[in-house]
Specification:
Distance between the termini: 40 Å
Mean pLDDT: 88
CATH topology: Growth Hormone, Chain: A
Number of strands: 0
Number of domains: 1
Strand content: under 5%
Largest sheet: none
CATH architecture: Up-down Bundle
Helix content: over 70%
Length: about 400
């Protein structure tokens, strides 16, 4: 499943790696470019409630296979058919819808089958491998774009999620209680399981982790979507004696890779000092490092790289902690629905993040200011708001019970 995780998101960073090229070719504003990045998450949020709720009812491998095929079709359509903003968002949305049927269902496949050891460690490795997949996507996309153009990159990377779906199907076995997709009666409650979501939200501990995941995902996916564009801009305005020694996509690959150990080590630290305390400190560090990165546009490339790596470490250090905390805080019978709501809120944040970042870039440049600082501030502030809210509301109840 770790291999399928990497393959499933082979095309995840293809748009981010080609954003500046597509923006120039189609004459897009920063907001339009950001909205296209958000289209992936629009598709994800639209389908993930159904995909994850059905994991409590049917063979999860069938969901994963369907998602892999849909994601592949979205990527191929973007490369082969897209002709402008008006239709590109549809293909990117299809890609996101497909990934929604692989990411959390893949985690469900693992959590239902692994019964030994500390379950949060298995979860932390799975979520960390998202970073490996994203890094691979940046690197592969960058090579393909440089050699054959962005359309070719989308078409080639469409192979990844399709292959992931096939491997998940043949590499894992159906559980005795799981039914076939064709043997299950579907209801509207399967798409929007409001009653089951109410049960999830009644667990205040779980609610806190989901809100934290929303703030985390907004910052993560906004920064990832604009990372290549940010370093491309920095390289453009750099003086001749401050030339960047590597391409923006290679830098993005490095930044994503550093997030892998950060996520795993972060979960271990959370087990030792407490999840709440760990999440709070990490979100504060992420906010500080994010604004510092936005302010460092004209600094030496080595300082920029260090700040970007530091920001990535802080962003990813609570990723596994938030998801693992959610999984172990809800009863088994609503775990699939809990994962679905977790994804809706998290990737809902991912939906807003890139568009917010792009809109702030447009607005501040109209005001003739250095726009990267407010752009980064607009995505890190949500973590600080989460800390303030949970300190006095959601997690306050649990602390009073423990005292």
């Amino acid at each position: 499943m770790l291999l399928t995780q990497v393959l499933s998101i082979m095309g995840f960073a293809c748009y981010a790696a080609s954003l500046t090229l597509i923006q120039t070719e189609w004459h897009l504003s920063h907001f339009e470019s950001g909205f296209l990045a958000s289209s992936f998450f629009l598709g994800y949020v639209a389908i993930v409630p159904l995909a994850t709720t059905l994991t409590d009812k049917i063979d999860t491998r069938q969901i994963y296979l369907s998602g892999g095929i849909a994601a592949g079709l979205g990527l191929f359509g973007m490369g082969f058919l897209a002709s402008g903003f008006h239709d590109a968002w549809i293909y990117l949305m299809l890609h996101g819808a497909g990934i929604s049927a692989t990411y959390m269902p893949g985690l469900k496949i693992i959590s239902d089958r692994v019964k030994i050891g500390e379950v949060t460690r298995h979860i932390s490795f799975y979520t960390a491998f998202f970073g490996i997949g994203a890094a691979s996507s940046y690197f592969i996309s960058g090579l393909l774009i440089e050699s054959h153009g962005w359309r070719y990159a989308f078409m080639v990377t469409s192979i990844g999620p399709t292959l992931a779906g096939i491997l998940a199907w043949v590499g894992t076995q159906k559980l005795p209680h799981e039914k076939s997709l064709w043997d299950v009666h579907f209801e509207m409650s399967d798409i929007f399981p409001l009653q089951r979501w109410k049960k999830v939200l009644a667990v205040k501990e779980a609610t806190g982790y989901m809100l934290g995941y929303a703030a985390h995902s907004l910052e993560l996916f906004a920064s990832r979507s604009w990372l290549v564009a940010f370093f491309t801009y920095c390289a453009t305005v750099a003086s001749p004696d401050n030339a960047f020694p590597m391409t923006a996509t290679v830098i993005a690959t490095m930044i994503n890779l550093i997030g892998v150990p950060a996520s795993i080590v972060g979960n271990e630290m959370a087990l030792r000092i407490g999840r709440h305390r760990w999440v709070y400190w990490i979100m504060i560090g992420s906010a500080i490092s994010g604004i510092a990165l936005g302010a460092a546009v004209h600094m030496h490339w080595s300082i920029l790289l260090i700040l970007a790596l530091l920001h990535s470490i802080f962003i990813m250090a609570d990723s596994a902690t938030l998801t693992a905390g959610l999984v172990i805080s809800v009863p088994q019978d609503i775990k699939g629905s809990a994962m679905g709501l977790h994804s809706v809120l998290g990737f809902g944040g991912g939906l807003l993040g890139p568009a917010i970042f792009g809109a702030v870039l447009d607005i501040t440049r109209l005001l003739h200011s250095d726009s990267w600082i407010p752009a980064y501030a607009s995505i890190v502030v949500w973590g600080l708001l989460f800390i303030f809210y949970t300190q006095f509301s959601v997690w306050k109840t649990r602390r009073s019970h423990q005292s």
